[in-house]
């Protein structure tokens, strides 16, 4: 069982009337609202929080890629990953991930990920994803090409890591006469690959077929997440093996305080800032992005998306966030992890406007009073070699 600190790096200095004046926190939200002086403070604070995660015993840190958004002002997670590679010594650095269809050529991903892997001494987890609706909107890319481009870019990236160069690549979307990246990854044959999905059947089947790790979309009702993880495990079975627990992950907001009452008193307004302002106007699935069957299935689940939740009771019932005393959070998380059957927990310990002092207290209480219990009950993390061997022999 592995525990990661995931950071969205949100921009959280929005006007009080943001919800009334603006339709969305994505793509078209005016960048005149951005204050780079405050951004300087935020970026450095958020990096400190990720570095602190190593000091207090987390197994890894996670960052992701977002464009033209206040939800996460993190257009280049690889820049942050390279800083973390230099400033940490032990934790895994999970970049989950790069939106492959938008990199032209995608060998740029192979190069930058290899750099981070070499700088960190082999601690990179290489996440790949299709990109979401905001990215296709921001870059005016036809979403009907998403999967085809992703497949070709993924194949080319892995080939660039594992095949001696130079070689030629003549695909449908990219034609490269000399593929010969320098450097090559520290980890051989290549860093672990995580596919962060948008919960379509197509993505789970791809991850299962290639024996990669799979992360379902966060912020949905617990029943939908469970179905997605079961769908992934079923796809692994169809490919002739049993999914390793640490081949799956659960991303969830977490807040721990001294008592249940204090936890909600300190956390609730920051969580609802996130729900009402930072998730506002999110369009995850552009037309033509997934099969009609997947869109129909996900469309039903969107009725219980976190952005549509309005009460604390709904949050607790749906498992959208783990909030409470150390005793409450560890019992809840133990039950959820066992029910989901996941081997990676990606905890959001900062959300919305949650300030630095409460974020640090939250992380510290979790590390000191929740993490040891969960490790004892759920098991120590498997080594990279154990995971690799398990997938190879199943």
Automatic annotation (TrEMBL):
Signal peptide: none
Enzyme Commission number(s): 1.14.14.5
Cellular component GO terms held in the UniProt record: cytosol
InterPro entries (UniProt xref): Bact_Lucif_Oxidored, Luciferase-like_dom, Luciferase-like_sf
Single Gene Ontology MF annotation: alkanesulfonate monooxygenase activity
Luciferase-like domain segment(s): 43-338
Alphabetically ordered keywords of this record: Monooxygenase, Oxidoreductase
Taxonomy, superkingdom: Bacteria
Top class in the EC scheme: oxidoreductase
Record has Oxidoreductase as a keyword: yes
Keyword Oxidoreductase: yes
Entry-linked PANTHER family: LUCIFERASE-LIKE MONOOXYGENASE (PTHR30137)
Protein name (Swiss-Prot/TrEMBL): Alkanesulfonate monooxygenase
Organism encoding this protein: Rubinisphaera italica
Gene (UniProt): ssuD
């Amino acid at each position: 069982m592995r525990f990661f600190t995931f950071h969205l790096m949100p921009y959280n200095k929005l006007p009080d009337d943001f919800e009334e004046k603006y339709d969305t926190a994505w793509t078209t939200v005016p960048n005149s609202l951005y204050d780079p002086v405050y951004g300087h403070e935020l970026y450095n604070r958020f990096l400190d929080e990720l570095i602190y995660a190593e000091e207090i015993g987390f197994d890894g840190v996670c960052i992701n890629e977002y464009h033209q958004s206040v939800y996460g002002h993190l257009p280049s997670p690889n820049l942050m990953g390279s800083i973390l590679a230099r400033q940490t010594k032990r934790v895994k650095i999970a970049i989950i991930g790069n939106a492959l269809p938008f990199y032209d050529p995608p060998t740029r991903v192979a190069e930058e990920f290899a750099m981070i892997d070499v700088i960190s001494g082999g601690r990179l987890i290489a996440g790949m994803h299709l990109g979401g609706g905001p990215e296709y909107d921001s870059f005016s890319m036809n979403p009907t090409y998403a999967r085809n481009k992703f497949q070709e870019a993924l194949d080319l990236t892995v080939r660039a890591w594992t095949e001696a160069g130079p070689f030629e690549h003549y695909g449908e979307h990219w034609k490269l006469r000399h593929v010969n990246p320098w450097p090559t990854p520290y980890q051989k044959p290549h860093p672990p690959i995580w596919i962060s999905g948008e919960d379509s059947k197509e993505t789970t089947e791809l991850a299962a077929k290639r024996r990669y790790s799979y992360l379902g979309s966060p912020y949905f009702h617990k029943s939908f997440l469970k179905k997605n993880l079961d769908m992934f495990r079923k796809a692994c079975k169809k490919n002739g093996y049993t999914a390793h627990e640490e081949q799956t992950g659960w991303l969830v907001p977490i807040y721990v305080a001294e008592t249940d009452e204090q936890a909600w008193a300190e956390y609730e307004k920051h969580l609802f800032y996130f729900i009402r302002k930072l998730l506002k106007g999110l369009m995850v699935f552009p037309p033509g992005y997934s099969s009609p069957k997947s869109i129909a299935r996900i469309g039903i689940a969107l009725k219980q998306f976190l952005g549509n939740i309005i009460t604390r009771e709904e949050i607790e019932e749906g498992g959208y966030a783990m909030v409470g005393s150390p005793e409450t959070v560890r019992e809840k998380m133990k039950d959820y992890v066992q029910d989901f059957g996941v081997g990676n927990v990606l905890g959001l310990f900062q959300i919305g406007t949650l300030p630095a002092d409460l974020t640090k207290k939250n992380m510290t209480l979790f590390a000191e009073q929740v993490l040891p219990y969960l490790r004892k009950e759920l098991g120590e993390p498997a080594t990279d070699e154990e995971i690799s061997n398990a997938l190879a022999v199943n």
